[in-house]
Specification:
alpha+beta; two-stranded antiparallel ribbon; single chain; six-stranded mixed beta barrel; 2 domains
């Protein structure tokens, strides 16, 4: 009963000074809304990157050529053609837990069709490439192992190629020319959008890797090997087994460095999302400063309120109120102000994040955890910064308080 009566007195005191209460809560509103908006933007960017990582496929492991050191000269990925088709075949044959393998030859060429031309990425792959990348066809079919053996002049194309070269025609069965060599279009890939690096994944022509090596790029090595593990549980073991196999095949004995680089999907995801995580923490920390300033504002106003209401406090103490009642009253006032500011701040923050998303086409993601933490923090700020003024009010001497003018 005493708590209920004290709470009622605290609410009446806030209602008497409506404008001051609103202005006091404004600091918390701005702080909480800034936290919600900034964290939502950071979470949205992280979710977008994770979606792009997922577009690689499931349980994908990438092996890059290069990464060598010879005579004091060092190079990273792609610095040397150290991978071969035989390496890919050996991995598929000898490493347990491998579901699919595709040797990859990557090139950049101008393609021509219908009197139009377009610079695009040419990928030489195996028929398992679409399985590894979890990439479906909207129409047509994938080339076959027979096309691999015969270095067939066939291809599948991405949506961007269709837009640029066949805007009004059905591309299936049509011919595009790569280095003046005709390739028949067998299928059209579904759209995947941007990659982790920000490149257009749909701007691609996929041909048999043998055709890429013998007809287009005239090379004997490959750029990388795409591998799909049977499950996420065996992916780590497969990476180790593949590294051991490649070191053995490349005769890398003793302490010699690997002339290849293996990256699992989890490693790629961690590297890609590290920046967005840092950005989210930074934005949240900057916005948190606003919350701290709002708390300082609450303390300042509560100290002024104690000073203004010294005589009222003295009267309450003189007629039997305890110090803890005064302490509770002023704590309730501070918490109500901060909690009210927190609730309004959440609404403003969610609205702001949606507005930013609509105006700038940025991805935003409002999480329940961020809202919960913001409300808890606003309440904690009210209690922390309201405790000193409340304690000061509770320790007033009744006689001195009654004499206060």
């Amino acid at each position: 009963m005493r708590i209920a009566a004290t709470s009622l007195i605290a609410l009446r005191a806030l209602r008497r000074n409506k404008l001051r209460s609103v202005l006091t809560a404004l600091g918390i509103i701005i702080g909480v809304s800034a936290v919600i908006a900034m964290v939502s933007i950071g979470n949205g960017a992280k979710a977008q990157v994770e979606g792009q990582i997922a577009s690689l496929g499931q349980n994908v492991i990438l092996i890059f050529s290069g990464n060598f050191s010879t005579g004091g000269v060092r190079s990273g990925w792609g610095g040397a053609g150290t991978l071969t088709v035989d390496d890919a075949v050996a991995i598929e044959r000898e490493v347990r837990g491998v579901a699919a393998v595709s040797a990859e030859v990557r090139d950049r060429q101008q393609v021509l069709a219908n009197g139009l031309n377009w610079g695009t990425t040419i990928l030489g792959e195996s028929p398992d490439y679409l399985t590894i990348r979890d990439w479906a066809l909207t129409s047509g079919a994938m080339f076959t192992d027979q096309d691999i053996r015969g270095a067939g002049k066939v291809c599948i194309v991405g949506k961007t190629i269709i837009t640029q070269l066949f805007p009004t025609e059905d591309p299936i069965g049509q011919t595009i020319r790569i280095r003046n060599i005709p390739f028949k279009i067998l299928g059209v890939l579904t759209s995947k959008g941007l990659s982790v690096m920000g490149t257009d994944q749909d701007d691609v022509v996929v041909i048999p890797y043998t055709s890429a090596m013998k007809r287009v790029s005239k090379r004997t090595n490959i750029n990388m090997i795409n591998v799909q593990a049977e499950s996420a549980e065996v992916a780590s073991r497969i990476q180790t087994d593949m590294a051991d196999l490649l070191r053995q095949r490349h005769r890398l004995e003793g302490g010699r460095d690997d002339d290849f680089t293996i990256r699992g999907q989890e490693e790629i995801a961690n590297a890609a999302t590290a920046t967005t995580r840092t950005m989210t923490l930074l934005l949240g920390a900057i916005a948190g400063v606003s919350l701290l300033v709002g708390g300082i504002g609450i303390m300042n106003i509560m100290l002024v309120s104690v000073t203004e209401r010294t005589r009222e406090i003295g009267i309450r103490l003189a007629i039997g109120a305890h110090g803890r009642d005064i302490l509770t009253q002023f704590l309730i006032e501070a918490v109500v102000l901060s909690l009210l500011g927190g609730i309004l701040g959440v609404l403003v923050g969610v609205g702001t994040s949606q507005l930013i998303s609509a105006l700038n086409h940025w991805p935003t993601l409002v999480s329940t955890s961020a809202i919960t933490v913001a409300l808890l923090c606003s309440s904690a700020v009210g209690m922390f910064f309201g405790f000193y003024p409340a304690r000061k009010a509770a320790q007033l001497d009744p006689i001195e308080a009654l004499r206060y003018e």
